[in-house]
Every structure is written in C-alpha cells, then in structure tokens.
Specification:
Number of domains: 2
Number of strands: 4
Order of helices and strands: HHHHHHEHEEEH
Structural class: alpha+beta
Distance between the termini: 46 Å
CATH superfamily of the largest domain: N-terminal domain of the delta subunit of the F1F0-ATP synthase
Oligomer: single chain
Radius of gyration: 22 Å
CATH class of the largest domain: Mainly Alpha
Largest sheet: 4 strands, mixed
CATH architecture of the largest domain: Orthogonal Bundle
Shape: elongated
Strand order of the largest sheet: 2-1-3-4
Length: 184
Amino acid sequence: MSRSTDLKVAKRYARALFNAAQKIGSLEAVQNDLTLMDTLWRQTPALPRLLESPLVPAEKKRELLDKTLSGQLNAATRAFLYLLIEKRREEILPAVHEEFLRLADDAAGLIRAQATVALPLDESERAALLAGLQQRTGKRIELQVNVDPAILGGVVVRMKDTVIDGSVRGALERLREQMLHERL
C-alpha cells in the first residue's frame, strides 16, 4: 500500500476513534494510550516488526498486547488496537496517533507552534510573542522555542502548515532574490 493511501486510511481510523472516544467521554484516556503506544512503537523496534508481521497470527498479537499492557489501556483503545490487528492495519498506528492529536488540538482550540530565535528569549519577549500569535490566530497557542544562531536575528515561527519568517537571514535572502530578479 502506498504512503498516501496509508495516510488517508490513518485519518479515517483516527477520526472514527476520536468520535467514539469523544462520545464516551474518554478522549484524554485514549490520547494517553495512543501516546504510550507511539512511545513503545518508537523505542521498541521489535514491537512494530512483530505487530506488522503477516506470519504472526492475530490471536498472538492480541495476546502480546494484553500481556504487555495488561490493565493499562482504556477499553476503547484496546478495542481499536484489536480492530487494527484484525484489519491488518497495524503499520498505520503512528499516523493514527499523529492525526488523533491534531483532532484533539483542533477540538480544544489549540495550535502547537515552534519558534526559532537567534538568542534565548526572556519571559517578557516570550509572552509578547505568544500574545501576538494568539491574537493573529484567535486560538490558544502552545509555544516551543528553539535557539538557532544561524537565523542571525528575529524569529521564524511554524504553526501547522504556516511558516512566518521574520528572521534577519530570511530578510537577507528575500532581498538577494529580489536583487537577482531585478537584474534579469
């Protein structure tokens, strides 16, 4: 199956799980379970190999999950994982987790943003940046700030599919492009 097909399928599964979890009031529990599974998926290479293997029967996969995570998973999450195993869609679990988080953030009116700055921000600068982003989007912002001296100054903000480049380096590159374009 192609990567784009996997992503489409993962989005459908994530939306169905999100709606079911919302309906039964288990959004936070399911989100925590998916985060746990994603962590295990990434930190234990044997887990994806085993769950994705067509040679391992579905019953053995369910037993493995039950033994490994006995009592740790919400019933809705367990049923969802069993469904993925039954439908042989185990490989989409990381993409389902990512989409589920996006749906939960959207429902909560939250946008996760990453800001890259040349020098560390003090609390007032961070608060001003956060306030500006919240005013611009009309949503709550969860801001992660990274320091990268290569941008020279200013800030580069990434929110969802949007990049706001207010860096000195970006301005210099745009000026260079403009000057090259005017020459031609």
